[in-house]
Structures are given as structure tokens and as C-alpha cells.
Amino acid sequence: MSNFPLAVSNITVAIVVVLGIAALIVIVVLWQFVSVWIQAFFSRADISIGSLIGMKIRKVPMRVVVNTKISLVKAGIHEVSTDDLESHYLAGGKVANVGRAMIAANRAQLDLDWKKACAIDLAGRDIIDAVNTSVDPKVIDVPQPTSSKTTIDAVSRDGIQLRAKARVTVRTNIAQLIGGATEETVIARVGEGIVSAIGSATSYKEVLENPDKISKAVLAKGLDSGTSFEILSIDIADVDVGENIGAKLQADQAEADKRRFQAEAEKRRAMAIAVAAENRAKVEENRALVVLAEAEVPKAMADAFRSGHLGIMDYYRMQNIQADTSMRSSIGDGEQGDEKKS
Predict the structure, then answer these.
(1) Residue ranges of the chain that CATH labels 3.30.479.30
(2) Residue 156 and residue 154: Cα distance in Å, rounded?
(3) Please, are residues 158 and 204 in contact by the beta-carbon 8 Å criterion?
């Protein structure tokens, strides 16, 4: 019986120790919420302990949400609630970036509410860069340094090639940032406008004398329509004279005409050769007919002898005439040969 009080005291000590450890654990767990709540309370962020516990259960980083809420409140933006911050995080957005963008837009007096900012962020756009560009315009090089082309090449009406570089100053159009065309569209439109402006110039000298004509003509076309940017200015950074494209095209055309005429002449020559060959064939054909006809003469003479229509004296007379004709022909040919030699 003497050991019973000692056993009771040991059990009491064990229970006290267990309760102490449990209380310490509870205090440590609650302290992470209490410390954040105290920070929000003294910052007038209006966040309850229950909201912080709910964030922990929903696996929402409460410090990110609380810090963003505090920053918004200190900047005078009270319409954004804790639920709005949580919803944007759970939707896959970047809460801290949207909060900083809202504060920057509020300082710059830009028309940017929370829903629009969240939509821009969820669309994959850099909301902070968009707001910064709205306040501090940026310069875009046309063409871009990373592209394969280093200049915008165009040809004026007199056939001279000009190579231009432009610098476009733009700022973000917050109202059209969602669904608006990107920076690449602006660059393509400006390049197209430069080509059109140079192509409409009567002479390349006009462009060299007044490069601002190109920028004014391009700027007047409203190239920022439907884009996420507002074009403030287009400046021609450099204009160089390239090749004489007109003369080169004329030379190429002359060479093509030359080859065409040569081909036509060769065609006519081939046709003439074919006609000459055809005529020679006809001559040989006629000669063959003559030979055949001459072969019929002895037969006709034999028939005349047999029928009595031709006598022997007639035959000798005919032979003498032929011999006389041959002699005269040979004499004539000899005289013509002497005249040629002389």
C-alpha cells in the first residue's frame, strides 16, 4: 500500500508532461497563424484567423496572400478581398505579380481593375511589364535584331533599292491587351508600311532628302489598330542606297529577249534546213523519174523500127544531131571556164 501514492504521482507527472507537449505543439501550430494574423491586423488588412486556417487547408500560401493584401491596402486599394486573392491563386495566377501591377496602375492613374488584371495574367501576358510599358513607353527596332534580316528593303519608282531601319515607340493599351495583337504584329505592319511608302516615292532622292516622309506616311495608316499597343512615334534610324534593281531587271529582260530571239532564229534556220533537204529530195525524185523516162526511149525506138515508123537514116540523123549538140555544149562549157579563170 505504501507504493500506491508513488505510482499515482508518477502517472500524474506523465500526464502533465504529455499535456505540456501537446500544448506546446498546439501553440507552435497556432503561432504561425497568429503571427500572420497579427501582421495583417496591425496593417488593417482585415483577415481573420479562420481565413488563414482555410488557406492552409486549401494549400494556398497564406503569407503570399497576406503580404499582397497588405500591399494593396497600404496603396489605397480596398476593393480586393482575400477571397479574390485566393481564387486567382487557385486558378493558376500569379497573385504577387497582379498585386504589384495593380499598385503601379493605381499610382499611374491607369484604368485597371482586379478582374481585368487577373484576366491579363491568366492569358499568359506579363502584367507587370504591360503596366510598366503603359507608364514608360518602350522602343521596338524594325526589323528586330534577332531576325534574319538587318534592314527593310524596298524599291522606289525609279528602280533604286533603299534599305531602311526604323525605331517604333509604343506603350501598352490596357483596354486592348486581352485579345489584342502582339509585338510581332506591330513590327510586321511597320515593315509593310515602310515598303509601301518607299515604293510610292517617285525617286530615291526624295526619301534620302526627307526620311520623315516615310514615318509620317506609316504613322498615318493607324497600324496599331487591333493591337495591344499604341504607337507613339515611328522614327527612321537609317536609310542606305542599295542596288539599282530597275537597271538589273532591264538587263535581265534584255538577256531574256536575246535568248528568245536566238531561239527563234535557230528555229527558222532549222526550218530552212528542213525545207532545203525536202527540196533536194524532190530533185532526186524528179531525176529518178527522168532516168526512168530516158530508159523508155530505146524501147520506143525499137518499137518504131519494128513498126516501120523509123528508118535507119532517121536514126543516124538523130545520132548526128545529138553529137552536134554535145559538141556545142562542151565548147560552151570550156569558154565559160576560161572566162572564170581570166
Answers:
(1) 136-244
(2) 7
(3) yes
The answer to pTM > 0.85 is no
Three cell numbers, residue 148: 534574319
DSSP state of 151: S
Residue 230 class from Cβ within 10 Å (0-12 exposed, 13-18 middle, 19+ buried)? middle
Taking the chain (342 residues) in consecutive chunks of 10 residues, what is each chunk's mean pLDDT? 57 69 64 75 80 83 87 87 89 90 85 87 85 84 83 86 87 79 84 86 83 81 81 84 78 84 88 88 84 77 73 72 78 64 58
Burial of 75 (0-12, 13-18, 19+ CB in 10 A): middle
C-alpha cell of residue 253: 529582260
Q: Is 56 left (phi over 0), alpha (psi -120 to 50) or beta?
A: alpha
Domain 136-244 matching CATH 2.20.25.10: the answer reads no
In Å, how far are 142, 144, 183 from 148, measured between CA atoms?
12, 9, 17
Radius of gyration of the chain (CA): 53
